Amino acid sequence: MMYGLRVASEPFSLLVISGGTLLGLIFGAIPGLTSTLGIVLLLPVTFGMNPAVGLAMLSAIYIGGISGGQISAILLNMPGTPASIATTFDGYPMARKGQAGKALSYGVIASFVGGMLSLAALVTIAPILGRFALRFQTYEYFLLGILGLVVVSSLSGKSTVLGIASAALGLMIATVGADPLSGVNRFTFGIRALDGGIALLPAMIGLFVISEVLSQVCETQSEFSFHSGALDSMRLSIKEIASHWKNMLRSSLIGIGFGILPGAGAAIANFVAYDQAKKASKHPERFGTGIPDGVIASETANNAVTAAAFVPTLTLGIPGNAVTAILLAGLTLHGLTPGPGLFRDELGVVYSIFAALLFANIIMVILYYLVMIRFFRWALRVPKKILLPVIVIMAVAGTYNVRYSFNDLWVLAMFSCAGFVFRRHGFPITPMILGIILGPIMEGALRTGMMRTGGSFMPFFTRPYSIGLIILIVVSIALSGVYRRFEERKKAELLRQQKADN
Amino acid sequence: MDATNNPGKSPIVKAVCSPVLLVDIVLIALGIVFLLESRNIRPGFQQALDARVYPRAVAVIVVAALILHFVQTFRKEWQSRRRSIKSRLDAQSAPRIASEARVRLVSVLALFIAYILVIRRVGYFESGYLFLVGSMIALGERTFGWIVRSVFIALAITAAVYLVFGVFLRVYVPPGILLR
Description:
Shape of chain B: flat
Largest sheet of chain A: 2 strands, antiparallel
Oligomer: heterodimer
Helix content of chain B: 55-70%
Helix content of chain A: over 70%
Distance between the termini of chain A: 65 Å
Structural class of chain B: mainly alpha
Radius of gyration of chain A: 22 Å
Largest interface: A-B, 64 and 66 residues
Order of helices and strands of chain A: HHHHHHHHHEEHHHHHHHHHHHHHH
Number of helices of chain B: 7
Distance between the termini of chain B: 45 Å
Strand content of chain A: under 5%
Order of helices and strands of chain B: HHHHHHH
Largest sheet of chain B: none
Radius of gyration of chain B: 25 Å
Number of helices of chain A: 23
Number of strands of chain B: 0
Structural class of chain A: mainly alpha
Strand content of chain B: under 5%
């Protein structure tokens, strides 16, 4: 551990980690650009470096990227990454109420706490949790996907049925293109451009970013995208932060759990943490109206995923998500073999990565308060007529960079128009995105599992982990129904109270 | 689009033509198209669960859930209309887009489509510059001063984007006539 700390605290390493974190923050903040793209771009630069320093830099970009997503999510209602979609639920309403500074500050502190707890989990309980996650088989991954979709469907929009329809629509979109298991073309309608399927990022950028741009184009009254036009104080008292300890701890545990499971990750963790915070709250009806609890839950969970996602990557050689998959490639390109042998043969590099994650989390907070605050103040003064077109050209660059495909730009245009229509008529977008993300994982898990059993569904109902997940799904659906009724009653009470007051 | 303001039509047509239900109808049609198309998928070789089953099941869920939502919403709407209460769908739908905003929306959308159309031939930075100028003029005031300023602001933004993407980060974007 001391070797790792020594390597990471050398002046050059600190400079590289700081640069990586700043780059990650910027990439995360720009819709369409992700930490994945940042790491891919910087990977060749690290070849000339000591593997420990190079991997420390890439890890720092990851931390910065996940945390940076909250900036555009809170200020513009445009999540920079899928990991911060749930941050928009309360972050943007807070910004609209003139509390953008507070929302960002809560987000930064929550990210820091989530990141540090996740790091503690990585260092101390990683081997135990890694062993537990390894027991999950394809049946559990399929059920885990259903659990994620159920949670999100019940969360977004006014109707659970519509949420389920939206999630299923996402799953349906994900089936377009060549079937990953048999190679058979599906739903391409003779269009060759669809053979490769519909990529997630163009669809996500279209549904969330460009559709929001189009919605803001329709708002002719306001000159600025950011409504109050100024940033309030980012200062928070220790008491204010400490009052949310339960939420932070719960969301961190959720994030760590999802981070350890390969294939799950921050995109689901932020929704589940938000849902659990809402269910555990004494005032669930206030969620979505702009309260810190929602921002804290989402941001703690998505950052808690970061270090935890290294557990399967480093210990088993199974990447926890897209970013760790690229980091895995980075390890291999630096001549290291991920897996149990890494802890035996390259312990120094492993601890350097741990130390880099520690420093990146600390530097992230410092950069937010020293550098990014100036960036926010400047960005908020940019009028809509300049800001919106700039977002579009950034989004186009981000989309094109996914696969260097012009067809993806048409996918972007199509989903932008669909997203605009959905937004205007209350059709929930979030379950659809999660459906597109989880679709291939779920189908692959289901069909691989069925291949193993020769077409029998029995393991879904006989394996203890599967039964546990099925119970969780049923409980989640039941709780959502109860909660929805409770919410409607509370709203009716509030309306009655308002009428009586008037 | 807002059928509730159209006095000539029957209440059922008015309800069905509400934008909220129209979205349901379009998506149900899409689900049915997928369901029918799933018959043309080949099963694949040696699959316990062939390539058609999962997408077909998903399409059935889409259609069923949307039909359920359509019926639920239509019933509520029908009941509220019978009780002469202001339509629920009117409240659910977003307010109508003002004519000035509609012009801006159509202009930006047209520019966006044109941007995607020409990006392959003209290049990312060059077409981006043209898009920036066009949309800044469409979104801003129609004064000579703003048009001139748009040209220069767009130039500055394109230069900044080129420095960041093209020079510093070396992000691969469609090469252009002037900038690569």
